Amino acid sequence: MKIALVHDQLAEFGGAERVLLAMSEIWPDAPIYTAFYNPGSPAWERFKDKDVRVSWAHHIPGFSTKLHSPLRFLASAIWNSFDFSGYDVIIGSSSWYITKGFAKKGKAIEICYCHTPPRWLYGYTTSKQSILAKIYGIIVGFFMRHYDYDAAQRVDYFIANSKETASRIKKFYRRDSKVIYPPIENQMQLQGVSLKGYLKGYYLVVSRLAQPKNVEIAIRMANKEKLPLKIVGTGPDQERLKAIAGKTVEFLGHVGDEELHRLYAGAKAFLALSMDEDFGMTPVEAMAMGTPVIAYAGGGYTESVIEGKTGIFFKQNFTSAVRKFEKMKFRTEDCINQAKKFSKERFKKELTRFVSSKQPG
Questions:
Q1: Range of 267's domain?
Q2: CB burial class (10 A; 0-12, 13-18, 19+) of residue 340?
Q3: Is the pTM of this model over 0.90?
């Protein structure tokens, strides 16, 4: 069975890229097709030894750094330029770049692992934009929504990364989907690694620093309550966030996996703040290290965090939720056991079983 993997882009290394990495472990000989990659980026460092095949757009100067967003209307031309007719199965890892509905696939079966329908097309909060950018997005979005819907109808089978995403697939595409939760590294429990300096004394955010992630409310809480807060991640909103941060807030930027695991293990609580998260792998990663979560009561967070057992939810007053959390106790074992339900081994078994049941013949 010849399999091709297709992914939006290789730039940041986030949850979608962790899913792609697990897929490439299942099918190590499968080439990875992508619109473009950024040399030296965290994602490229993880996949540079793989058989990565880029589109013609990758070779346009500046496309991978600045032009891919304003030129997003080229998505159909990018994906339709690849010839997938020599494969039995095409597995797309799809979110914002409409990575699905491939035209040149012959008799190949197309399976779309959907992280979410493109947020920018369906009214979900994205990064802050200028007035001109918003107007441009409205005009382009009108035509791209039609293309996105048509592309979704050409997919043979959908897999959703959460029940939240499955409901969006049903709403926007009128398609059913199978929920297979993304893979979490449950073997992250470190053995023989010193946690000196990470003794449950701080709150932790691991996130892209962009407006939809709501990191600002964590900073304002830390400023008001004089609580230590560590923030891992970079993004377009980082300079503004640093400007409003008080003395108890520490920005760590990008960190390696081992350091990230230490940070998870040493946190008093992990803060999950997005209001419409598709699934949210970072809260589960925190629970895998025995750390409870304070999460917004919505989106995919409600599928992983157990109220009162592995964390608490908030709806409006985040500071009140933190004060409530300070008076509660959580068992490390409960958090770890909950995270095991989302293990990489489980993901591989479920995805392999699903693909095998759909293969030609």
A1: 186-340
A2: middle
A3: no
